[in-house]
Design brief:
The chain has 5 domains: about 40 residues, no CATH class; about 180 residues, Galactose-binding domain-like (Jelly Rolls), CATH 2.60.120; about 140 residues, no CATH class; about 190 residues, no CATH class; about 80 residues, Immunoglobulin-like, CATH 2.60.40.3080. About 20% of the residues lie in helices and about 30% in strands. Helix 5 crosses helix 8.
Length: about 750
């Protein structure tokens, strides 16, 4: 009989009896056994290595052979001794003698090896290394790192004379060793049937410390009643497995598996690694055991980001490469071919879509924004949670920022004028920026830095650096000059108004101060195509759409506050005050008003935004459970310092996200800069006054002429009040109105109708 179970196929051999009920009984019996076997994970624990076992050891007076941690290493020349190992302070079985060398009194390290026979690795689900250590160690199984404490970072191999952090052993005083859990995924990658080797390097905290100790125990969780090793020590307590890395085997999202082959990922340069991407676009599940059908090849990888690089879930920059290490342009997950990619983490975003919502809205406004796909990532056989895989901001015609490619040969004339991508951001200390000649209007002594992004500073010649610096200086001299409003020779000659309008709307909708101060991008093409600087693409919105304890207006829970005024909080890096100045021009402010209220009918409607949020939440409903099990961020204030109560469920965070946007939209509706160009003249003609705004109990409506009719509508366009005053003023009772945004239409005696927005507090 052939049984299809989910994705995988299983063959069940069944003897056919003459009676159908016997067949049914047998099938049931065999299925019961089958499913019992695959669901059972732990029957009991056993210990394979005790501290008192016989070990091979090498005293760290010099560097051991590089293969010492591998199974096949010949350790016959090493000494043998009973564990634990130390300097003889009454808790050691094998004493490491004092070193006669003049540099230090005691050897700084000792290297240990012990063989373990495992007849059947399928019977093992988890492991735990228990170390009573003074001071630091790194442990390996068959050359694969399984645990470390107090020295280096994962993936590096400490030198024999490298010192560790100070740490005290406890067993000699009646304490228990520390637990280092070994996951299923790690065991699958390193254990093999038959002989295995546990290798440990132990390091002292100083050259003169006399209390180095090492007592090691290795225990395994056994799936059934089999007896493979020895009973656990009397003090052994089964480790808590509730928060371990999920046992990840399949996903409805694309699965990305990266293997660095033991090397540690750093912040520049990129290290070589292997990457596989599995995704079936027919809505079938994506199994880790499937062949890689999207990508299976080489990459370069590095840690990216500024503050986000310090989070436990790291963001990464990637390059797809060929077998020689050269850049390889490939189309991945439906995105146009390129070689530069990013993996954005979601440590600070518990709805996993703060970035993608901003990107989606900016893209639908008609601008380029990076394409992203939610995925699940496995790094060196360890589950890493939900990531955004997608495009890095760079030049690319027509798939990314559509500007000319600037090379080092473009040194004069039209050639040198583009294309450039630059940004405001932190100083990395490597001469990657220039300083503006102008301080912000709302921060007179502030120093603004513009950072070269594409090409990088190291790929720009002096003529190119000088050109873009001088061009921006020209733009700022006009913008901050007396005739900046001039439609021909003012700022509009140099800045693309439509992109600045849309960038402003996204930044303010999300109340994202980072949209102005860091990772704030601009780009410029060659003069022969376009002399103007464009605002965007949008980037770095994981700190947005929140109430944060970071600046007085960011902590407002009623949706108030303008993000573009962030200089009032003396932040770093210092944002330029381009929008502050441009908003002094009614043309720019009114353009924002017109565009915003036009978009409120479409992509900025509550229904459109909620539908997007719901669709992403539904897509991630399964993966977020694994992500949360890995990182445990729900109910906690992580990353950005939020002031609100932290929901303890994914659904709660989604509701909080929606409610925040609703509140923000209501405030923007009532307070958006500028006026509609369709009603500006009429409002001035009638001298219509609607006050106070925001309103609580009573709303005054006055005009220079008699008022024929007043219609009050809610944000959905539903009638609230319809009155006919027949005089020049009227008082409306608003005490019973729910909080929110309202529209008031005032028809005058001469037939003109004027419209105003109000907010009820």
């Amino acid at each position: 009989m052939h049984l299809n179970c989910g994705h995988h196929n299983f063959n069940l051999s069944i003897t056919i009896f003459s009676m159908k009920k016997h067949v049914g009984i047998l099938i049931f019996f065999q299925l019961t056994i089958f499913f019992s076997a695959i669901t059972q994970t732990i029957h009991h624990w056993e210990t394979a290595v005790f501290k008192d076992d016989s070990w091979k050891y090498f005293v760290g007076k010099s560097e051991p052979d590089a293969q010492w941690r591998q199974l096949n290493f010949d350790d016959s020349s090493w000494n043998s001794g009973q564990g634990g190992f130390g300097y003889g302070d009454n808790d050691d079985n094998t004493i490491i003698e004092q070193d006669a060398l003049p540099t230090y009194q005691y050897p700084p390290s000792v290297y240990l090896r012990i063989k373990i026979n495992i007849p059947d690795t399928s019977k093992i689900s988890y492991g735990v290394l228990q170390m009573d250590i003074d001071d630091a160690f790194v442990a390996y199984i068959n050359g694969n790192e399984i645990a470390r404490l107090g020295i280096g970072t994962k993936g590096d191999y400490p030198a024999f004379n490298q010192l560790g952090a100070n740490h005290e052993a406890t067993m000699y005083a009646g304490g228990s060793p520390e637990n280092f859990l070994i996951t299923k995924a790690t065991l699958r990658s390193c254990l093999k049937p038959g002989q295995n080797v546990l290798a440990i390097q132990v390091h002292n905290s100083s050259y003169t410390s006399s209390d180095m100790s090492s007592n090691a125990f290795l225990s395994f969780a056994i799936r059934d009643a089999s007896v493979i090793f020895r009973p656990t020590p009397f003090w052994f307590v089964e480790p808590d497995l509730s928060g371990i890395t999920p046992d990840f085997s399949s996903s409805n999202l694309p699965v990305i598996m990266i293997n660095t082959n033991g090397a540690a990922i750093i912040d520049e340069p990129k290290i070589p690694a292997d990457m596989k991407i599995i995704f079936h676009d027919d809505n079938s599940r994506n199994y880790l055991s499937d062949p890689a059908n999207v990508y299976d090849g080489k990459i370069g990888i590095e840690i990216r980001g500024a503050s986000s690089a310090g989070f436990p879930q790291k963001p990464y920059g990637l390059e797809t490469r060929d077998m020689t290490g050269a850049n390889l342009n490939v189309s991945l997950l439906g995105m146009p071919a390129d070689n530069d990619w990013v993996l954005l983490s979601n440590w600070n975003d518990k709805v996993y879509m703060r970035n993608t919502l901003a990107f989606e809205l900016f893209r639908k406004m008609g601008h380029y924004a990076p394409r992203m796909r939610h995925c699940e990532v496995v790094m060196n056989n360890e589950y890493q949670g939900i990531y955004l895989f997608g495009e890095k901001i760079k030049q690319g015609k027509p798939s990314r920022v559509n500007i000319a490619k600037l090379t080092m040969l473009d040194d004069s004339g039209d050639d040198v004028t583009g294309g450039y991508i630059f940004k405001t951001d932190y100083d990395d200390g490597y001469g990657t920026y220039w300083t503006s000649s102008y301080s912000p209007l709302n921060r007179p002594r502030g120093v603004v830095r513009f950072v070269y992004h594409v090409p990088k500073a190291t790929d720009l010649i002096d003529a190119q650096k000088e050109y873009i610096k001088n061009h921006v200086n020209t733009v700022e001299s006009v913008l901050y000059g007396t005739n900046f409003k001039d439609p021909v020779n003012g700022y509009r000659k140099y800045l693309d108004v439509s992109s600045f309008v849309d960038y402003f709307i996204i930044g303010e909708l999300s109340r994202n101060v980072d949209a102005y101060k860091k990772s704030r991008f601009f780009y410029k093409d060659k003069d022969s195509k376009d002399i103007k600087i464009y605002s965007g693409p949008v980037w770095d919105y994981d700190w947005a759409w929140k109430n944060m304890n970071d600046c007085y207006f960011l902590s407002n829970t009623n949706g108030t506050g303008w993000a573009y005024k962030i200089n009032e909080c003396n932040v770093s890096p210092v944002p330029p005050s381009w929008e502050v100045r441009m908003l002094q021009d009614p043309y720019f402010a009114n353009a924002i008003n017109d565009r915003y209220f036009s978009l409120r009918k479409t992509i900025l409607s509550q229904s459109f935004i909620n539908n997007y949020i719901d669709s992403v939440a539904n897509l991630l409903s399964e993966a977020q459970i694994r992500h949360e099990k890995k990182w445990k961020t729900l109910g906690k204030n992580v990353g950005a310092p939020e002031i609100d109560a932290q929901p303890t469920t994914f659904a709660g965070d989604i509701t909080k996200f929606k409610n925040w946007i609703t509140t923000r939209l209501a405030w923007l509706d009532a307070n958006m800069v500028g006026e509609s160009t369709a009603v500006t003249e009429l409002n001035a003609y009638a001298n219509l006054q609607v006050y106070p705004n925001p309103v609580q109990d009573e709303l005054n409506v006055k005009a220079d002429v008699n008022i024929k009719r007043i219609i009050l509508l809610n944000s959905l366009g539903q009638y609230i009040t319809d009155v006919h005053p027949a005089n020049s003023s009227h008082l409306i009772n608003t005490s019973n109105l729910p909080r929110g945004m309202y529209i008031i239409n005032v028809t005058l005696s001469d037939g003109h109708t004027l419209t105003r927005k109000i907010i009820k507090e």
